[in-house]
Design brief:
5-stranded mixed beta barrel; 12% helix; OB fold (Dihydrolipoamide Acetyltransferase, E2P); 17 strands; mainly beta; 5 helices
């Protein structure tokens, strides 16, 4: 919201800021500096904005949030309430800000109402090899582990997402301290929903996801992969044209033959296609009923 006309209007003058303060209105602005004591500084029109360290995030005061979480906000939008407008020793007006207050209200009004199985919108804020951290709301983060991103194996979360992506996710669990774990694969369709777009005898395009001694896993869709025999000059992330030799629902297996690979087309990402993008999921089964192996997620177990 930082670039919206509404936000620009709220910081356009001392009068507008004073009204936002009196009406307890939410404001977003970019932090321009983090000082040596880890306080954040802002420029709100012609007024200085000052956010004390303990108000930079929920949990800082209790030692649950590291200072790197504050430093990383520099040059990024930060949401806050104005707690006070005062005059400093030099006679300049200063707005004292609190992001922690926004987060506490968000947790009370929104986060605390979430239960496992809820489908929500989130924004990817940070990527690690083990998963993607996502902003659920107001800077409150949740972890989306790599094994929850898709049924189809991926080498790294960056094969699916980039920082700043707005995605859908499912609340998988919430622990006693309010920490949220997300999952994503349940939104990308079952084995049958994905495989219906492919037929034996067709030659299609896929992405090489894993090269193993016994074969090469090639992703055909975000929640579907097939196995091809080992072939020379194959590399993870490269595009491949593959012949579909057979499709076996009982074993959930697709046998492929690599026709050709293209190193110049190493996009590494598959387009997301959500089969579910809102509401709530109690139980989700990926595997066909005829399959010898059952793959499912039961969200009711986490309640």
């Amino acid at each position: 919201m930082v670039n919206s006309e509404e936000m620009k209007s709220k910081i356009s003058s001392q009068k507008a800021l004073n009204e936002a303060y009196l009406n307890r209105e939410y404001i977003e602005a970019r932090a321009i500096m983090c000082d040596a004591k880890h306080n954040l500084h802002f420029k709100l029109g012609d007024i200085k904005g000052f956010m004390p360290r303990e108000e930079c995030a929920e949990g800082v005061r209790e030692g649950k949030v590291r200072d790197i979480a504050i430093i990383s906000r520099v040059n990024k939008p930060v949401g806050f309430y104005i707690e006070e407008i005062r005059t400093d020793s030099s006679g300049e007006k200063v707005a004292v800000l609190s992001r922690a207050a926004v987060q506490k209200e968000c947790r009370r009004e929104y986060i605390n109402s979430l239960v496992p199985g809820d489908v929500i919108g989130v924004r990817v804020s940070h990527i690690e090899p083990f998963g993607a951290f996502c902003d659920v709301a107001s800077g409150i983060t949740a972890l989306l582990p790599i094994d929850g991103i898709s049924v189809s194996r991926i080498p790294d979360p960056s094969a699916r997402f980039s920082v700043g992506d707005d995605i859908k996710a499912v609340v998988k669990s919430i622990d006693g301290e309010g920490r949220i774990t997300l999952t994503h694969k349940e939104l990308l369709g079952t084995w049958e929903e994905n495989v219906k777009n492919f037929k034996a005898g067709e030659t299609v395009t896929g992405i090489i996801r894993s090269v193993e001694p016994y074969g090469i896993f090639i992703e055909l869709a975000a929640n579907l992969a097939g196995l091809a025999e080992c072939a020379g000059d194959t590399e993870v992330g490269h595009s491949a044209s593959v012949f579909i030799k057979s499709i076996n629902p009982e074993k959930m297996k697709i046998k492929l033959i690599i026709v050709d690979t293209d190193k110049s087309c190493a996009c590494g990402k598959t387009e997301e296609n959500y089969f579910i993008d809102e509401g709530h999921i109690d139980f989700w089964q990926y595997s066909p009923d005829c399959s010898k192996k059952t793959v499912f997620t039961d969200f009711s177990e986490a309640l």
